[in-house]
Amino acid sequence: xxxxxxxxxxxxxxxxxxxxxxxxxxxxxxxxxxxxxxxxxxxxxxxxxxxxxxxxxxxxxxxxxxxxxxxxxxxxxxxxxxxxxxxxxxxxxxxxxxxxxxxxxxxxxxxxxxxxxxxxxxxxxxxxxxxxxxxxxxxxxxxxxxxxxxxxxxxxxxxxxxxxxxxxxxxxxxxxxxxxxxxxxxxxxxxxxxxxxxxxxxxxxxxxxxxxxxxxxxxxxxxxxxxxxxxxxxxxxxxxxxxxxxxxxxxxxxxxxxxxxxxxxxxxxxxxxxxxxxxxxxxxxxxxxxxxxxxxxxxxxxxxxxxxxxxxxxxxxxxx
Length: 320
Known about the structure:
The protein is of the alpha/beta class and about 325 residues long.
C-alpha cells in the first residue's frame, strides 16, 4: 500500500465519527447508520488511534468533540458531502437500468423470449421490459427505447439496422408430413390444411401471396384443403407443431422448432425471399444511456450469429 493509503483511514471510521459528532451520541449515531453503539465506539476509537489524538470526551450518555475533533469534523463533512453529491449524480445518470424493447408478437415470442434468460444471466443489473404488439404505433411509442419491426429499413426519426431478412417457407409437424406424403411440391399445398394468420397488416406475407409468387393457383372455390385462421403468428406456429396443418415459416422465427424436430420443411429448400426484413430501430432524438447500448449491442450480436439461409432455388418474380 502506498503512502496515501496509510494517511487515509477507512471510510467507515470517518462515517462513524461524523455521525457521532453530529448527534453527540454513539447510540444515536448507531441508529442512524444501522449498526450497534459498540460498533460506533470501536470505529471512533480506531480513528483516534489512526491519528493518535482524542476526538471525543466521553460522557455518561453523550460525547462532545475535543479541539482536535472540531478541527477534523469540518473537512470530513465537506468531503463526505462531496462524495454524497457525486454518488447521487452518478446514480441519477446511470440508474436507468430498465430498457424498454418492443417487437411484433412473432419476434417477441419466437426470437426474443428464448434468448432473454441467457441475457439476464450475463447482465443481472439490466432489466428488459418487453412489449409485444402488432400495432406499429404501440411499438414506436415515446416510452420505447428499442423496437424490432418488419419493413424495408425506412422509418422517420429512427435509425434502423437489419437483424435478419425475410425468408418464408412452408412448415408442418413430422406427423402431419408422414400422414400426407403427397405433400412434396408447392402445387400440392392448396389441397392441404393451411394455417393462416389474420391481422391488420395486409402487407405481411400470407398464403395467397406465397403461392402466387411461387406460380401456384390459389382458388378458394376449388381448393380442397381446409383453412385454419388465427390472429397471431405464434399461435400459427403452435398449431403447426400440434399437427393441425401447414403454416408459413419465417426463417429465424421457427429455427428452434426446426432444430428440435417439432417442425419440418416438407418442400425442402423451396422458399420465398422478399425485400423486407426485421430491423432494430433506435429513436434518433433519444439520448443514449449505457444500458440501452448494452441491449442494442447484444441484439446485433445475436443477429450476427444467426443461421444463414440459402437463396431460393427458383426465385419468384419481383423478389429482391
